[in-house]
Model the fold of this input.
Amino acid sequence: MNQKIPSLRLVVLLTSETAFLEVNGVPSVIRAIEGLRVFWPTLPLTIVVSPEFSSALYTLLQEHRVSHEMLLCNPSDSRELLEALLSESAQFEGVIIHDASRPLTHPELLVRLMGAFKSGVDAVRPSIAFTETLKIVKPDGVIRETLDRTSVKHISSPEIIRTSAFATQTQHRSGELGGWFVPLKKGSQIEHIEGAPEGLRINSEAERDLLESFLHWKQLNV
Done:
């Protein structure tokens, strides 16, 4: 018997103006959407953006003929984002939330995310083990502590979150699970799957250049 396909919506967050930076000639936000569309070609798409970037984003989406709905709020504020999505997502079983400043998504990663979500977890996202050395440094430059790197992970997106796990207004904040794009109900079942190195977030032009170098290297080694 075939497993029921959950009803989902795509939500892309423009959390920074770095989402407008071009990666090999294509704006990050457009690449992010196109990457999701390879795996989810027909799901409804909502773009969440703060008012200051909405006009530029609308023009860009029109130029690339991206069919979408737009929500205006601060996408970096988890509580504000939750309130914006609550009424809009009630008819969906879950939402796929992705940061527009992460332009590259590997199809195999999306397959693993969906597999975990279909298994019954409330929220799932990619993560990568942290391999660098982390030090806590005092204001005077003296190293106070070396952190255990096994306790730290690089968290990436997309996140797939079951709407029934959203922490609603009636739930006290002490009963919420934070650290996700939206607050989750306490006790929600979460899972982290193995991420991919190309899931890098672009925080600056230098990091955009690094991502372009990575793409160029991959093309040479195909």
About this structure: The chain is about 30% helix and 25% strand. The first helix runs from residue 28 to 39. The CA atoms of residues 113 and 119 lie 10 Å apart.
